[in-house]
TrEMBL record:
Any Pfam family: SNAPC3
Designated name of the protein: snRNA-activating protein complex subunit 3
GO BP: any one term: snRNA transcription by RNA polymerase II
Keyword Transcription regulation: yes
Any one Gene Ontology molecular-function term assigned to this protein's record: core promoter sequence-specific DNA binding
Highest taxon in the source lineage: Eukaryota
Keyword field contains Transcription: yes
Keyword list, A-Z: DNA-binding, Nucleus, Transcription, Transcription regulation
Classification via InterPro entries: snRNA-activating_su3
Location relative to the cell: Nucleus
Phylogenetic placement of the source organism: Eukaryota, Metazoa, Ecdysozoa, Arthropoda, Crustacea
Family according to the record: Belongs to the SNAPC3/SRD2 family.
GO cellular component, one term: nucleus
Subunit structure: Part of the SNAPc complex composed of 5 subunits: SNAPC1, SNAPC2, SNAPC3, SNAPC4 and SNAPC5. SNAPC3 interacts with SNAPC1.
Amino acid sequence: MSHTIFISIQLLVVVRIYRPIKYDTHRHSLLDRTRYTQELYLLGKNKLSELRDHIKCALDHSVSADLSHYPNESKSVKNGKELYKSGFLFINDCFYNDMRWPDCIDYSEVILNWANQPGRKLGKFTKAIMEDTYIRDLDIRLGYPYVYVHHGEHEHLFSFVDARLVSANDPQEVSNYPYERSVGIRNGKNCMICSMFVAKWITTENDRVPEDPFYFCEDCFHNFNYGKDGSKIGNFKAYKYVDNNAL
């Protein structure tokens, strides 16, 4: 017996996620302008925690440890998402904290303590639980920038760009949502040895290459930096690199 649930009358919102930028007042390059990386469709019955789970970020899949002495064990090392599970969505002066795991930290607490100091006059901020909040519960402003924070201080701007009823042209099964409708143009990093394949590794302080950091694909990384017996050649630190285009 099929258990597929189809949509009847349901609110649909469109969310755009933007690329993190490091603003520099002395540079005004086109590359510094905010560009979207994802466009997501969500139903009113989806929770904010589901929105968070569909935001792609290379940091979630990265490993911060130096793996130069044991590169073949990289898969056994916990990645960023496994180590740092906390995060919040800041929408309309409310911090929606992710508290789904026992080791989650309320990131908003230190901000609220700072904002509530006498003389700040920053307005009244509130907080709520992300996984207990539905999209339909929000009073959103279309086109207004909101922020998602994880890994302590890594920020992604996002905005709600449309809100309407589900149409016949949209996916009709509830299980299809959240749904990634499109992705923005993202420039990937190719291997700096062969220039053919996407980079999988970064080395720093490498005394055998002309640039720091230096990007390698999987094969070039092992062939250049290790002998046939697997021994390390030269001095360097190595980190797994996750290209946004591979997410």
